[in-house]
Amino acid sequence: MAPQTISVIVPTKATPARRTLLKRAIDSLLVQEDVRVVPIVVINGPERDAELTSEIAADRRFRVATLEQADLPTALCTGRKMVDTVWFAELDDDDVLMPRALITRIEALNKQPEFDMVVTNGVRRDFNGDKLHFVCDASIIEVDPLRAMLRQNWLLPGSWLCRTDVVGIELFTAIPRFRECTYLALQFATRCRIKFLDCPTVVYHADTPQSESKSREYTLGGANATRHLLELDLPPDVRDHLRMRLGDACSANANYYLQEKDFRAAWAWYRQSLQEPRGWRRLFFARRFAYAFFRS
After folding, report:
1. Per-residue pLDDT at 3
2. Quick check: 108 pLDDT over 60?
3. Which of 49, 156, 231, 265 has the most CB atoms at less than 10 Å from its CB?
4. Are residues 204 and 226 both part of a single domain?
């Protein structure tokens, strides 16, 4: 493949409701200047629209895989295994790349070949308008990207590009369901040399209806996803920070189930939250639990 050819993994459920969004995302890839883009469209799960799936499969510009079960981590890993170009990236089906996004990333890595990948800023778009994803100097993140993650997750979906021969499939084989970006960011930070750019190259749509991040499963899945993050080889201070996050996630689940009046599940999650660092901060929940239980 030519050096300026880039594979871009696009996971999608290909439902009728996502047709317009998916077309918008793919169009933003195909109009990229000074590069050739190979969209790797991974159709993810049984809710796919038959007509839309046929259209995608018939387009010779795309490489297509179809998964019977809806699972974003598997979709990302499947797409990574299909990459056969010098560079690869990823784009969610409801987001868009800005003009010259990909050539900007390639040029950054060509100028500094010691880096394995590049991460750029992005624009977060919701009903309140647009704002930059990270506002601190990119050079500060670049000094210690792992500990910068303790302040903010700097990795937006669609904001990165990797050298295929350096960033291997093994980084994508154990992604947890939910918090996929956090997992990838930690993997990249511990195993890759990352160049950061302040310039935004992707528009991330935070308020897309029916997004998985709005679901009950996503809300309740944060604790187990954080446990998965703790299986990574991380320094003690980072592990301590993640354990505090795990305690907060368990507490959030306890509150969620308490609102549903599922007292058994709420108490079980509360007990788990007490086992993590600073569990004493969550003692007030016992009073709330008792009040809600006896009131019920």
Report:
1. 65
2. yes
3. 156
4. no
State the pLDDT at residue 211: 75
Q: Which of 4, 83, 96 is nearest to 42 (CA)?
A: 83
Confidence at residue 293, expressed as pLDDT on a 0 to 100 scale: 65
Structure tokens at 65: 């895989």
Give the whole-angstrom CA distance, residue 294 versus residue 283: 18
Q: Where are the alpha helices (DSSP H) in the chain?
A: 19-30, 50-58, 72-81, 101-111, 138-143, 145-148, 180-191, 216-220, 222-229, 236-259, 263-274, 284-295
Please, are residues 120 and 202 in contact by the beta-carbon 8 Å criterion? yes
Give the domain range for residue 223.
Answer: 215-295
Same-domain status, 186 and 252: no
Residues 6+ apart with CB under 8 A from 214: none
- The torsion angles phi and psi of 40, rounded to 5 degrees, stand at -100, 100
Of 168, 193, 213, the domain-final residue: 213
Per-residue confidence (pLDDT) for residue 184, from 0 to 100: 98
Is 202 in the same domain as 234?
no
CA distance linking residue 293 with residue 296, whole number of Å: 5
pTM above 0.90, yes or no: yes
Same-domain status, 166 and 281: no
Kindly state the percentage of the chain with pLDDT values over 70: 96
Q: In the chain, what percentage of residues exceed pLDDT 90?
A: 80
Residues 150 and 264 both lie in one domain: no
In the three-class reduction of DSSP (H, G, I as helix; E, B as strand; rest coil), residue 64 is classed as strand
Residue 41 Rama label (left phi>0; alpha psi -120 to 50; beta): beta
Q: Count structural domains, the chain.
A: 2
